[in-house]
Amino acid sequence: xxxxxxxxxxxxxxxxxxxxxxxxxxxxxxxxxxxxxxxxxxxxxxxxxxxxxxxxxxxxxxxxxxxxxxxxxxxxxxxxxxxxxxxxxxxxxxxxxxxxxxxxxxxxxxxxxxxxxxxxxxxxxxxxxxxxxxxxxxxxxxxxxxxxxxxxxxxxxxxxxxxxxxxxxxxxxxxxxxxxxxxxxxxxxxxxxxxxxxxxxxxxxxxxxxxxxxxxxxxxxxxxxxxxxxxxxxxxxxxxxxxxxxxxxxxxxxxxxxxxxxxxxxxxxxxxxxxxxxxxxxxxxxxxxxxxxxxxxxxxxxxxxxxxxxxxxxxxxxxxxxxxxxxxxxxxxxxxxxxxxxxxxxxxxxxxxxxxxxxxxxxxxxxxxxxxxxxxxxxxxxxxxxxxxxxxxxxxxxxxxxxxxxxxxxxxxxxxxxxxxxxxxxxxxxxxxxxxxxxxxxxxxxxxxxxxxxxxxxxxxxxxxxxxxxxxxxxxxxxxxxxxxxxxxxxxxxxxxxxxxxxxxxxxxxxxxxxxxxxxxxxxxxxxxxxxxxxxxxxxxxxxxxxxxxxxxxxxxxxxxxxxxxxxxxxxxxxxxxxxxxxxxxxxxxxxxxxxxxxxxxxxxxxxxxxxxxxxxxxxxxxxxxxxxxxxxxxxxxxxxxxxxxxxxxxxxxxxxxxxxxxxxxxxxxxxxxxxxxxxxxxxxxxxxxxxxxxxxxxxxxxxxxxxxxxxxxxxxxxxxxxxxxxxx
Length: 729
Known about the structure:
By secondary structure, the chain is an alpha/beta fold.
């Protein structure tokens, strides 16, 4: 079931979307976005087929279990590189709700938290994490996550608990046996090879099942005959004596299961500290394991003291894995590879996972890559597809030495506070880094008397953020950028081809933005608009310039299209690229009780008095976002034909009473409408507006949803699409 068009309707001229399609999408949107009843047994989470996660948390349940709260977030691995982040919900009546997505295929974990510290489990989701009682999980299906799904009934292996002793203390491990496994016996196979799979310090063996999806991965690889039949032993990362524990575990496995005990049929791997333990066991005492894998391992010491000759003789495979620079193992891997090369130890490197940090999403991929390499000869020893080389250690600037955020190569961004919040309890950076530009709060860690975090990789684009300190929003004092209508916001740009139109053009090459002061009879005060004139603007040109009136949204003002919408940069680039008709763009103040009068009696006359712009309707355009989009549609209805080019971003058409459809269709050369995806809260009303226009016969263009929420990522893309279409028909 698709919940968005994603370009499925691409008119080449003025066309109308099918009312049947619109009605169907509206019905889907209503199911997805409507607040749910405040009952604990009503599912709090609904995941659509295309990856949108809709959360609806009853306020009464939250209050009954953790008390009254002022905010509720969903904490989960939704951040860049699958990092932990907070997704804020909005209180709507009796329900805290929000829609996040589209999420990439994969496994997600989450918990519900009020006021930073009052956490609870989703009682309507039975998928839990044994070691994290408050966590729940859900799987977003997709081809890239097919190995994480349950294998068909009856085709998987079995997982059992093995109990053993270490220094007279009882310990346990989990053991996966392959489909068709045969125990010891005179008629059975001679034995199976065995992989010892380690968890990390502070983790449980069950995490490999609940978060690593090890059973599903092994089941599916086995069903595909992509791996040798083997026994996999999973242990936690809190052994009282690592080497002794491992020795006793190997003995217990050998005594209990039909496994081969010779080193050539023994493998070991682990995550983080478990990966370090695996490498240490294989490298420092060669002859026990023939295969070793380190998933985000932190081993640095002892690599230079190994017996390279013995290691190269006895180990058939040593394979290293690391995430990107957000993985604490990244720098450790840089140093380890240098030490191994210097010592002459042969090893494989899977390459740097560009989109993975130190988390289960990356480690699932590591297991999928590692296990098929065991217990037979393989010819491919290179990195996984899309993985890159190590480029030296990653070291952000020392605290307090540079304005923040600090943008590193590859889109990694380091945020840092001043020392003003050294006594704070909970600090996050709130930014438009979620899919499509939705907002996430990423936890910051205390670093001396400051708070700091590095996130990424972020795609090249324009970002905005604020710091949340103990639930209070504050401005990043180290960032000189400002947003007039949002005093706590700061901005930054991640450069790249994708964000080229949002970047500054070379100095002296772009147009000019000037302030235009005009008197408002509606507001009874002098007001200001910002006006962009194209490069080479000639106030005495014989032919007046076309003029485009561009409006902001509610809670915003005339400065927002320049400070947040990057209108100057977009228009500059498109003009220099030859895509834009030379025009004047007027960004007025729409915060008035009567916008029609403000526009026609105040803003338009002031623009004509101060700039060489046309009064011909065919040379005038009007567009706006959200509230400004609604105002634009109001002008279209009240004064059809006054503006030949009309567009609305994230705004519905409204009712159809009294609409002169014939005048709109004959007097409008282009009426183009835009909306974000289902995370845009106006999506249902927008779709209702399409139905109204279809029923009335209004001619319009709709090129499908713009992926993203009710935010600037969407509206920047809308302006990028619209501006080159103006004054060309």
